[in-house]
Structures are given as structure tokens and as C-alpha cells.
Amino acid sequence: MKIDTNKKLMTKADMCEYLSISDSTLFRLRRDNIIPKPLNLGARVIRWQKEDIESWLKSITPEQPSPSEYKVKSKRSLN
């Protein structure tokens, strides 16, 4: 995958601040394939393209929860 170096890349901390969510919520959004997939820049380095995140936010319909409202039942609560 070729990366456009002119586009703003966001770290995990940037994403959490931009979406007003916690690390845990970002993890759940990634795990459940709710947000766009990040770019893998190395073994332990991932970044999101800000343009992709902005497009995704614009695509959210009123029926869908906003990222800050996203809640997932833990596996413990399913018993």
C-alpha cells in the first residue's frame, strides 16, 4: 500500500483526542471493525489518515451511535 505523505496521519492518542474517546473504546471500535482500518507502518506502529476518519464521521447516520456513545457488553456480562 502506498502512503500519501501529504496526508495527515494520526496516532492512537490523536484519535482518542479527536473522537473524545478512551483507549479502550478505540480498541473496541477497531476490534468490531467500526472505524476505518489503520495503516501499518511497522511491527508496532499504526496510523490513521485523518481524511479517512473525517469521511467516516460524515457517513455516520443518526441511527448509528457516535464514537463516544459506542458501548460493547463485556464478555463477563454475557454469562
Structural write-up:
- This protein is α+β, with helices and mostly antiparallel strands.
- It is 34% helix and 14% strand.
- The protein is built from 3 helices and 3 strands.
- It has helices at 12-19, 23-31, 50-59, and strands at residues 9-10, 39-42, 45-49.
- The protein has a 3-stranded antiparallel sheet with strand order 1-3-2.
- A hairpin with a 2-residue loop joins strand 2 (39-42) and strand 3 (45-49).
- It is globular, with a radius of gyration of 14 Å.
Compact description:
The protein is α+β, with helices and mostly antiparallel strands and 79 residues long. It has helices at residues 12-19, 23-31, 50-59; strands spanning 9-10, 39-42, 45-49.
Short key terms for the protein model shown above:
79 residues, alpha+beta, 34% helix, 14% strand
What's the arrangement of secondary structure elements?
Layout: E1 9-10, H1 12-19, H2 23-31, E2 39-42, E3 45-49, H3 50-59
Antiparallel strand pairs: 1-3, 2-3
What about the largest sheet? 3 strands, antiparallel
Strand line-up of the largest beta sheet: 1-3-2
How many H/I helices?
Answer: 3
Contiguous runs where pLDDT drops below 50 for at least 5 residues = none
Task: Specify the helix fraction band.
Answer: 25-40%
Order of H and E elements: EHHEEH
- In round numbers, the mean pLDDT is 82
Shape: globular
Going by helix content, strand content and strand pairing, the class is: alpha+beta
Q: Tell me the strand percentage band.
A: 5-15%
**Distance N terminus to C terminus?**
42 Å
CA-based gyration radius: 14 Å
Number of strands: 3
